[in-house]
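forwarding from the other thread:

> can someone predict this with LLP?

sure thing
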Amino acid sequence: MRDYESKDGTMIFGGMSTVDIANKFGTPVYVTNEQILRENYRRIYNAFAAHMPTEVHYACKANTNLAILSILEQEGSHIDAVSIGEVLTCLKAGFPADRIMYTGCNVSNEELQAVVDTGCRINVDSESELERLAKITTDIPISFRITPGVASGHSGKVMTGGKGAKFGIPYNRVIKTYERAQELGFDVKGIHAHTGSGGLTVDPFIEVIEVLCELVNDIKDRTGIELEFLDFGGGFGVPYKPQDPEAELEDLGSIITDMVMNETDIKTIALEPGRYLVCDSTILLTKCVDVKNAGTKNYIGVDAGFNTLIRPAFYDSYHYVSIANKHNKAGVAKYDVVGPICESGDYIARDRALPEAEEGDIVAVYCAGAYGFAMSSTYNSRPRCAEVLVNNGEAELIREKEDFEDLWRHQIVPKRLSKQ
Ligand code: LLP
């Protein structure tokens, strides 16, 4: 896990005091370090591009802030988009359509038409989608998401590649589907699979590459289609705990590209990291507003709950926390860090040894950039928080915090019920 420097006992992030950031922008606030984001992109790209032509398709569901997208666009990233909303957001951030690949799931005809209209690449998820796309156009290059029968992930909720999954063309239908696409007149360029999200072992990547390489060759033998790219999805784990192992990306890049180059005629390898790019480049700063000794437990009550960061409550995910203004101090007691949401499942961290907490302390929640803001909500009528970008000692607001008007903006009270 990446840790951060401190100065005079205060955690420093992107060259700035985290306490100053919290004071200037208010809390809770997501803070992204531009240099770490760029470093993450370059590391994962180079791990594969050192061996063969590579496309990194950022799985933007992890974080669709326009400034973050713009940084990745500058780095040369491509995009994995799962909805027309994501496609339009990435176009707005400046991505050219041909660097966006749309992989939907249970896609409506309306959405399919809208995606076709943008000119982005389409990765087809089902035989039904193929037939429905053919009614709109066959004059576009496509690829298929297949169900590889390999599942991975930090929670059952994010494992996507196992047999019988709702995602992709079932393994035993793959050849038939490529044949059908050929018959319909499509130019089929690639194959794609995604096993799941956030596992820390390399085995699922090796297994899925084996499945994909075999299919690439079977497809060629059975249909004559010579695929150009192979996309083995995302799921690169990130160490959330101090003792978690670092991803061995360079080794993985070398092993995988060797397999693909030795076993197939594939020209380009594609991967779809979401978490890896944006996770540890962002922290969440939240203020301690209440300290409570409840007999068997000590609580640090903070102003971020599962409305702001749902991963602990939803997946039981671990996020490392530190008291940012007591960064060097040793833990003296065990605390649960809990939020303002009226549910007992509302927590950020449990049983953590931390320095003595006081009201006004700033708690830093690590590795908060992936699926943090993206999954936040206004539950309990708490407007969503701000996002800030830090770079070499400068901090810029990249999303204003919402206000109460935002809670009501799209609601309509019929005249007969209105008191205003
Ligand atoms: N490609 C596809 C087709 C995906 O479905 C996903 C994630 C990714 C790539 C990127 O996976 P990553 O590299 O980020 O692990 N909300 C959950 C994670 C859900 C992931 C869904 N799909 C969480 O907070 O852990």
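The mean pLDDT is 96. thats all i got for now
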